[in-house]
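Intended use. Records like the one below are meant for learning the mapping from a protein sequence to its folded structure. Do not use them to infer anything beyond what is encoded.
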Amino acid sequence: MLDVFCITAALMVGTAGLPHVIVRFFTVPKVRDARQSAGWALLFISLLYLTAPAVGSMARLNLTQTIQMGAVGAPAGNLAYAERPDWFRTWEATGLLEFDDLNGDGRIQYYNDQNSDFVQQASGFGWNGNELRVDADIMVLANPEIARLPQWVIALVAAGGIAAALSTAAGLLLVISAAVSHDLLKGVFAPNISERKELMAGRISAAIAICIAGFLGYYPPAFVAQVVAFAFGLAAASLFPVIFLGIFSKRINKQGAIAGMLTGLAFTYGYIEYFKGLFLPWAGAPWSENIAANWLFGISPEGIGAVGMCLNFVVAVLVSRMTPPPSAEVRDLVETIRYPRATGTASAV
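Structure written out for the chain above:
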């Protein structure tokens, strides 16, 4: 229960800290418009989060029932490989769906639990385990085909996935290019850089980000749902506490914000890397040790962002209290961001 709570909290809080979500609110002139936009966004995001587990469970059931056309208690009742449907052939050609006839009966055995009584009994036929490997990444697009829905529904699902990916990528590229060219390069390393060079730096950083994203998309470090959970957890542990404290506390300063972000980010990424070995498998725990008994308080890497968020809060507050408060200029800047001005007067309604 604690693990599920932390995963849910990391997803929820991480959504509030995602940079491509935050940047949208700077496009409205009034605080009320920003609040309404956030409210609608949270409504649809909550619908997505509540619907996704149900859709995933029904997709799994749909696939299992399609393969197990006969009685579950007998191998002869399963779908014959020669009679596999068109969707099976389509995804088999991509290599994301593979069939290995372990017992040589020409039929597809696919079960949810490899430790079930039936699988143990079936081992007497000369095989042990499932004969079908399904890449979980294909289920979103394959499920409409498995359910024999019209072609236009399949096209709509594919178009929706592409649109969502492009929209998210556009927002993230905007944030990455602006952070590197304006905040980092012009704000820290080269304050006197020209606008033309700043624009060029933004384009170069966006191109590099595209190359890295393309490489990781072609060679994903983990299952897509896990990668998304990790990303939300990292956002929750690094960005959200600073944003929250920047709104509700005038005592938080630069030193506290940086220390909190580094602490939350390092702890969360280190925990994920140690148990999952996404990029440094040699530096983490053996794969056999990635079990709940070895997790901190039983919290999985997918939910550890909630703990990193708490550490971020604690470190940011303590360091801010131990260092000088922010200047009056910074406090005035924060107030200006809180209440955007359209005509020189704060608009708080």
